[in-house]
């Protein structure tokens, strides 16, 4: 589906549905956002599902203002809509 990414604002891009509260954390029927593939992958490479909830990253505004997402969003906005960078899943585990 060609659309606009609700996080970075690029268009037209293929979007995927991102559960703002992860399904495994009770978000099955809670709000979702249509994100481009790079933004969606970046979120899940930086944060575990538990991180998303405990850090309060369950809305677009919080994601846009998170210190780890800001540089990525600034960079991806300058990329062509067809750009899908390689993202390696982080092995980093945050301690609560």
From TrEMBL:
| Origin superkingdom | Bacteria
- Classification via PANTHER family: HNH DOMAIN-CONTAINING PROTEIN, TUDOR DOMAIN-CONTAINING PROTEIN
Q: What is this protein called?
A: Restriction endonuclease
Q: Which organism is it from?
A: Paenibacillus xylanexedens
